[in-house]
Amino acid sequence: MRRRFLWWMVLLAPAAMASPQSLDPALARQVDGDARLILQRTETPGASLAIYRDGVPVYVHAYGVGDRDGKAPATVSTHYEIGSITKQFTAAAILQLQEAGKLDINATLATYLPDAPHAKEVTLKQLLSHTSGMPEYLDGADVEQWAVKPATFDQIMARIKDRPLDFSPGSRWSYSNSGYAMLGRVIEVTSHESYEHYVKTHLLTAAGMTHTTTVADEARAPGMARGYRHANGKLEPAPTIHATVGWAAGNLISTVDDLERWNVALRGGKIISAADYALMATPAPGSTDYGLGLFVDTLDEQPRIGHTGGSFGFTTSNQYFPKQGIQIIALTNNGDNPEPGQMLVTAAFETLYPDLAAAARKPAPGENAATTAAARTAFARLQGKGEDLSMFGGKLKTKMSGDLSGRMARQLAPFGEPSSFIFKGQRQDKDKGKTWSDYRIEFGPGNSLPFGVELDDDGKVAGISIG
């Protein structure tokens, strides 16, 4: 155990890049310490963490190794798959084409792809905002075997063509990679360029991004990290999604400095107009926290605009905090959930603004000890601790007796033991007449989870909400 611990300490010693500004040394040490702790706990081989203030780097560090087998140290120029951060680029391309008069995001998909599934029912804007109800092409027991092989657009569409919409377009929000695959094809049809050529010519070049390309070029990318994930408790190399499968939904690879060039160019009017950026960064109808290619939410009650990315062997996060003028980017070669990339960003922000973090952790008044005890017990069971289901009631108990119990354990067990369980208040479901008690569960630096329970008249947990 001692040799293994020392090995991690050596690999996680940071490599820094000089910057015109820098954090206070004590603050930088805390950011670094939290980052190393997160990477040790998650067994993440390598990462890049960068903080920019008003576009100027103040902290840019690399940790660990890009390739565990070769022990190649990660650097601040290491390339990582950025997964769904790609969606920002696809959304910006669509808006560019609208500005050029070549399409209308309020038009139906059928205007451009008449033969696509549900083309007459959904608009481009609904595809951009994940409010279309389009079924997911990256679902299914065979997805991993299928996704590592080449696929045409028609083959991607074949996976969803016989499936109904998940809900009435515009009525709800549900993340759909399928919508972005369709948008990639719309870009090709309206621009008369391949998706890859359009992105390179009109986005990457315009932003000055010389270190960004697609997963098809991983073998040629200098310092490309290798992706990993845990399987049966063991860290192992992960497969690579094929460029034609991830495509407009998530096939780019990049570096932290190139992503910041993108952030500055996108917000600064070099890619799209200020009005269209505002549209990207405004929640769309049917959604509370997603615009067009960008999540628009909060951290510690502070506005946050950005996107996370995940592939089989990578998790990443690119987040802007407009109130503070801070951009935090984290790229990792670990594809696990909870996501190390997002944990690094959260921990760094909360180190920079400890008063905001403390305020967000302040318990709300009116906590009921019995309800909290029931919530704690239920969460432990959801993590797979024990077989007793007596704390659940109604339909939830029946579901937990089926496959829900196993699925919840697979999702929640990796979070580990909660370090604190914080009551955040009650809310009323007026439609169903239910009262929910909400909590913030902490698991260590950068890792927390919103959790809610609804109790029936017998004090049993009849409903749960996560996230």
TrEMBL record:
Keyword Membrane appears in the UniProt entry: no
Domain called Beta-lactamase-related: residue spans: 36-349
Highest taxon above the source species: Bacteria
Record's keyword terms, sorted: Signal
Keyword Hydrolase: no
First and last residue of the signal peptide: 1-18
Protein's recorded name: Beta-lactamase family protein
Record organism: Dyella telluris
